[in-house]
Amino acid sequence: MDAEARTGYRGFRDLKVFQLSYQLALDVFEETKGFPKEEKYSLVDQIRRSSRSVPANIAEAWYKRRYPKSFVSKLVDSAAEAGETEVWIEFSHDHGYLPVEKKVNLLDKYSDVNKMLNSMINQPEKFCH
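Above: the chain's sequence. Below: its structure in token form.
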């Protein structure tokens, strides 16, 4: 039985966690467009980089499914990047660049991402071959 038949996924783009984290990276990009120019090379770069790393690491993990430890390691990296993004979201709010409702919404969605990642980390056999 091939991996697609076993997991029901044709690729990483089918994973809900990838779809959500990718959309979150797009949302972060849009939100940071209005940040002050003096934050361009610090906060804006950091939050954009970490938010984009979440789905990128999920994609990398997908291609390492043959090696469960490598798969899990990339998912752990993805969760770490999500955690970093959460910190930048907090800074963005505390500096007055991000309204509380946007902060709460983004943090809630990153919490969902981390729940999905942790489930995959705890049950890699559902995805690895």
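The two ends are 10 Å apart (CA to CA).
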